[in-house]
Each structure stands twice: as C-alpha cells, then as structure tokens.
Amino acid sequence: MADGYVTFDEFVDVESSLLALNVALAQLPSNPLFWKSVILNTHSALQGACVCLLTKSHGGGALTEKNEKQNLAYLNQKSDITVAEAQNQQPPKSLPYPPTMLQNLPGLLRRLPPPLTINIPKTSEEYEKSEDALAKDLFRLHEFRTGFSHVPALSWSIELAGLPRIVEKSLIQTQSIAESSQYTRVNRFRDMQVSSLILDATKALSMLR
User: Fold this and answer.
1) What is d(CA 95, CA 109) in angstroms, rounded to the nearest whole number?
2) H or E element in which residue 30 lies
3) Alpha-carbon distances, residue 111 vs 20, 47, 155 (angstroms)
4) Crossing angle (nearest 10°) for helices 133-150 and 163-178
5) pLDDT tens-digit profile of 97-140?
C-alpha cells in the first residue's frame, strides 16, 4: 500500500483469490457457511487465470465479442487519423476509450489455446447430454457463482456432495493455465505463490472428503 491505496492487477487478483480461498477452507470444518466464499474465490481464481493468459499487449483477448470490436476500432483510429492527415483530409471523429467488459468464464474457457480449451455446456440440456466430466464440473461452478452474484437475495440450499471435487478440478485447471507456456506477454505467475496456494487448498479439500 502507498498513499492510502492498494493496487491490484489481473495476476495479483488470482493470487488474492487463492489466499481468500484458503482462509475460507480453513473455516469450513466449524462453519459450512464458508462454502459460498470457497465457490466465489475458486471461480474468481480460474476466471482470472484465463484473463491473464488470453489478454494481449493491446488489452484485448479476454473481452466480450462486442467489446473486442470496440477495442480494435479504438486502436485502429490512430492509424486512420495518421492516413487522413497525410492526405490532407478531415480526420475521422475520435472514438472514446471503450469500457472494459470481460467475457464470462465459460466463454474464456472456450477461447483458451489447446490443450487447455474446455467446451463448457451452454445450457442445462447440453449439460445433461455432455460426457465431459471436467466441463460439467466447471459448468456447475459457474452456475453456483452466477446464482450467488446475479440472483436477488433469497435462501440457498447447496448439495455438498461433489463440491470438493468441483473445487479441486477447478484448481487443477487454474494451475495448468498459470503454468502454460503460451503467454504472449510476461507470465508473472512464475514469480508468485500460486502453485503453493493451490497445493495448500488441495490438501485442505482432501480433509473434507
């Protein structure tokens, strides 16, 4: 912290999600209400890792399709202005910098480069027909998180059977993304404690079975 501010970037956000996850896991034996925090932080870590791998130096790669087009148009306008000025023409109207709108987790997982790509079911019907166990578990993780984050206040009842498995598979995928050699920019995970935090979380999960 400096001057009263705390600064995060997408890499630090993954690490902080894993730190919070371990805190929540430590509370579970005495307070099962922490399962909500476990789910939210597991989802946050996985989505954040996807963003870190997919984001390009120009800022695109992990945005919604519409936002990707807006970002590209904003970047291209500089060359359009340069061309117009060279030809003594009226430069095009300047576009404002577009707001950042990240793609959701299923969309990010589908964009990952092979062999990390996971084709998450898009509907409950596709979920029932799917034979991909990992894709189905990550679909459930995203469903839980969506319910917590986007549904009006109500009571929840979560079936605990299978939750440790879903969280562990999500963490394994997060680690695979963090350790990938397919980054187009500096992979800062190499200098962070992501792997050790995932190992600690996995050990805690094994005690819940």
Assistant:
1) 30
2) none
3) 27, 12, 34
4) 100
5) 888 999 999 999 999 999 999 999 999 999 999 999 999 999 99
